[in-house]
Amino acid sequence: MAAYSVYGAGKALQYGVSPIPAIAAGVITGCIGGVIRDITAGVPSILMRNEIYVTASLVAAILFVILMTAGLDAPWPSMIGFAFGFALRGIAIQWRISLPLHRGH
């Protein structure tokens, strides 16, 4: 998920998309795989659960875009964005850290 978040944001930046929409493109790219997996498996979507998933994708995309726009040479923005997104998701899984339930749940 973190790798696809970085890839989606990077592709958007290559096409001249400004940073905020590029971050959104990265999050969408990163999360759509989980949605497809859940639909195929017939389980509730990862996006509807309180797991740290979209947040980790957002962290990866934001770090990547910030580092790219700051002028850091490749492949560092990709590696750093991926590492932080992957680590956040891994930590959340390992220690069962999740976001609070929203009121509608």
Write the layout of secondary structure elements.
Layout: H1 2-14, H2 19-41, H3 54-69, H4 76-94
Structural summary, described in words:
It is a single chain. Helix content is 68%, strand content 0%. It contains four helices and no strands. Helix 1 (2-14) packs across helix 3, helix 2 (19-41) runs antiparallel to helix 3 (54-69) and helix 3 runs antiparallel to helix 4. It starts with a helix and ends in an 11-residue tail after the last helix.
The succession of helices and strands, N to C, reads HHHH
Largest sheet: none
Average pLDDT, all residues: 94
Termini gap: 25 Å
What's the gist of this structure?
By secondary structure, this protein is mainly alpha-helical. The chain has helices at residues 2-14, 19-41, 54-69, 76-94.
What tags apply to this protein structure?
single chain; mainly alpha; 68% helix
